[in-house]
Amino acid sequence: MALFSNPSRKVLALQGGGAHGAFTWGALDRLLEDGFKFSAITGVSSGAMIAAMAVQGLVQNGPAGARKAMGELWERVAAGNIFGPVNSSLDWLWGWDKTRELGNEIAWQGVTNALRMFSPGQLNPFGQNPLEPLLHDLLDIDAIRHPSAPKLFVAATDVESGQAKIFDNAEISVPVLLASSCIPMMFPAVNIAGRHYWDGGYSCNPALTPVLALKPDTLVLIRAQPRIRKGVPNTTADIVHRLHEIAFQAPLDAELNDLPKHVRLHDISADAALAAHPLISKMNTDRDFLNRLFAAGRDAATLPVTV
Question: Is the dihedral of CA 168, 170, 172, 176 positive or negative?
Answer without folding.
Answer: negative
